[in-house]
Amino acid sequence: MRRRSKSHAPASIDAIVAAYVSEWQEDAKADLQHFASQPTFVDALRLAALAEGPGCTRMAHQRRIPRAVLRHSATRLLARAKTLLRAKTFEELYDLVANVILPIRGIGELTVYDTAVRIAAFRGLKPKRVYLHAGTRVGARALGVSGDREWIAPHELPMAFRRLRPSEIEDCLCIYKAELRAFVAGTPHRRIGTSRRAC
Fold it and tell me: Quick check: 164 and 197 in contact, CB under 8 A?
């Protein structure tokens, strides 16, 4: 577990982005590589829908969702596997995933996004937009960007974020939402970083 330092105001948005790169970027890449390296699309699709990471462990964002809900999601997505496999862009894939599983009770925006990103990793498709959900909206609003939309363009955010891919920007806004609010408000906050990845 990483040590926490005394409370302080984050130095800059650059420092927050640098902390993401240092603390979380490689973990995020490893998570996606798990899905990208599956032997078949159906295998990747099933694991993505069940939120099963390496060692069959439940991915953190979906740890509170009942397994029956995730199995229902997996069943519905597997029935649409051929359609999902034909998606040419991440945005098209995301819309398909949303249409299939968002109506399921217990599935929200974050799970739709995470599932789409995991499936897309196998396909080599990457988001060009920064998708917003509960945690990411908080980070975006802290930077003066309206969180009332489904997504924002990377160029709407400060220049410091340009070193990140859109999926990494989403991750950074979510993980560091409290630090971003503290920086903008100029108020003290614990160290730049978190001991657990949560949105």
Answer: no
CA dihedral 28, 48, 62, 114 (to 10 degrees): 60
- C-alpha span between 37 and 125 (Å, rounded): 14
Please say whether the beta carbons of 129 and 93 come within 8 A. no
Task: Tell me the pLDDT tens digit for each residue of 37-87.
Answer: 999 999 999 999 999 988 778 888 888 999 999 999 999 999 999 999 999
Q: In the structure encoding, which two tokens stand for residue 53, read together? A: 């990471």
Residue 76 CB: number of other CB atoms within 10 A? 17
Q: Quick one: how far is CA 166 from the chain centroid?
A: 10
Q: Are 161 and 17 in contact (CB under 8 A)?
A: yes
Q: Which of 95, 111, 29, 110 is nearest to 37 (CA)?
A: 29
Q: Which residues contact 38 (CB under 8 A, 6 or more apart)?
A: 44, 47, 122
Please report, for the chain, the start and end positions of each structural domain, with discontinuous segments joined by +.
13-29+129-185, 35-123
Q: Encode pLDDT of 88-142 as tens digits.
A: 999 999 999 999 999 999 999 999 999 999 999 999 999 999 999 988 999 999 9
Token pair, residue 55, equals: 């060692």
The shares of helix, strand and coil residues in the chain, as percent rounded to the nearest 5, are: 60, 5, 35
